[in-house]
């Protein structure tokens, strides 16, 4: 299908029309396409969709009649327009050039166009091919997807354009290097949490800037506690126990002291839960607050826990601070309940009494 709205005739009839009606040539005289005596051969014309295409035909003073044809349609004969398409206009009809322009070119305008002239009662033709380029366009792409770790992912990106665009996939990640696929389809087997994020499809054919679209891939995995440390706090001071966990979806947190769950809003305590951590705050630490605490992180894929100790710190008679050694126990995939250290009080009472005995012994020797 060529330029729309033009008078369409079978090709053989067009030849007869050109010879007998247009150029008034007697029957039996052949038409020689691309005659060596034609003033100048025409190069193919390449334009982008939506632009204007100019078709130029060089002539000389021997030419008496001229016409432009598209397949089986007459566009112009001399100054007379035979085509109803308003996009086709006559640019020049001089002693040296006969040119037309097709505005707002579309893909259906692509094809051969013929300039036909009559010189010395001999018709001659020259053909030019109009090539229409189309910018790439992504017509179909996978939707955002959520999948459990270890599953398989298949992403699709379909694009059109002339010439056919090249399609590439890229993982938008600081650790990703270069393209991970040069195809319409991207297959990921046994996906890991590190492979979550956005995947970018790019379609390019050098006609215009590449077009890109992104697909978000969410990888779900059970909680993993990355930080849980014991803390030493003196009586009467503010103390904090922190539990950090990574999980998708985000983990729900619960706190236990020994085997007893701590309720939100319990007097003297505050539990603050965020997407990736939970904070247990003691506003005024007492002796009864010391002991073993367990943080439990869970989502629909699983759970894990970690135990930590809130212990006391005292100022010794020697002027230094005495504290218990920090201990952290990680017990993945188990319920709450860690062992409380029953020696804390005795250790603190020992303090540095042996240091006080040294000067007493020296005094006894002097007497």
Question: What's the layout of helices and strands?
Answer:
Elements lengths: L6 E2 L2 H12 L9 E2 L11 E4 L4 E6 L4 E8 L2 E5 L2 E2 L6 E6 L3 E6 L8 E9 L2 E20 L3 E4 L4 E10 L3 E7 L12 E4 L8 E8 L6 E18 L2 E2 L6 E10 L3 E6 L2 E2 L7 E5 L3 E6 L8 E9 L2 E10 L1 E3 L5 E3 L4 E4 L12 H7 L2 H14 L1
Please summarize what this structure is.
This protein has 367 residues and is mainly β. The protein contains 3 helices and 28 strands.
Task: Characterise the protein shown here.
- By secondary structure, the protein is mainly β.
- 9% of the residues lie in helices and 49% in strands.
- The chain is built from three helices and 28 strands.
- Strands 1, 2, 3, 5, 6, 7, 10, 11, 13 and 15 form a ten-stranded mixed beta sheet that branches.
- The protein is rod-shaped, with a radius of gyration of 43 Å.
How many angstroms separate the termini? 126 Å
Bulk shape = rod-shaped
By DSSP, the count of extended strands is 28
Are there runs of 5+ residues with pLDDT below 50, and where?
Answer: 6-37, 316-367
Q: Count the helices. How many? A: 3
Mean pLDDT: 79
Radius of gyration: 43 Å
Helix content estimate: under 10%
Beta-strand percentage range: over 45%
Structural class: mainly beta
Please describe the biggest sheet, giving its number of strands, its sense, and whether it closes into a barrel: 10 strands, mixed
């Amino acid at each position: 299908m060529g330029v729309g709205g033009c008078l369409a005739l079978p090709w053989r009839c067009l030849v007869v029309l050109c010879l007998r009606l247009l150029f008034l040539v007697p029957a039996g005289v052949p038409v020689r396409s691309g005659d060596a005596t034609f003033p100048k051969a025409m190069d193919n014309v390449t334009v982008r969709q939506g632009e204007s295409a100019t078709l130029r035909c060089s002539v000389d003073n021997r030419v008496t009649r001229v016409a432009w044809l598209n397949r089986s349609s007459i566009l112009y004969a001399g100054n007379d327009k035979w085509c109803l398409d308003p996009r086709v206009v006559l640019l020049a009809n001089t002693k040296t050039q006969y040119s037309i322009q097709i505005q707002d070119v579309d893909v259906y305008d692509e094809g051969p166009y013929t300039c036909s002239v009559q010189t010395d009662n001999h018709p001659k033709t020259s053909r030019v091919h109009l090539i229409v380029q189309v910018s790439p366009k992504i017509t179909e792409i996978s939707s955002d997807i959520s999948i459990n770790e270890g599953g398989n992912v298949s992403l699709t990106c379909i694009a059109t354009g002339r010439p056919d665009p090249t399609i590439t996939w890229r993982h938008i990640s600081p650790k990703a290097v270069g393209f991970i696929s040069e195809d319409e389809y991207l297959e990921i087997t046994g996906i890991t949490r590190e492979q979550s994020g956005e995947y970018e499809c790019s379609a390019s054919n050098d006609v215009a800037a590449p077009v890109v679209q992104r697909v978000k891939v969410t990888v779900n995995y059970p909680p993993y506690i990355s930080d849980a440390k014991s803390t030493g706090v003196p009586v009467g001071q503010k103390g904090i126990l922190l539990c950090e966990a990574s999980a998708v979806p985000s983990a729900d947190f619960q706190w236990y002291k020994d085997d007893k769950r701590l309720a939100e809003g319990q007097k003297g305590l505050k539990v603050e839960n965020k997407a990736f951590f939970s904070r247990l705050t003691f506003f005024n630490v007492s002796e009864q607050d010391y002991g073993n605490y367990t943080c439990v992180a869970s989502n629909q894929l699983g759970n894990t826990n970690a135990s930590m100790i809130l212990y006391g710190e005292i100022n010794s008679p020697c002027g230094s601070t005495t504290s218990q050694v920090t201990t952290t126990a990680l017990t993945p995939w188990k319920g709450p309940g860690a062992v409380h250290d029953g020696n804390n009080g005795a250790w603190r009472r020992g303090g540095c009494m042996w240091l006080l005995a040294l000067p007493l012994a020296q005094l006894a020797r002097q007497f």
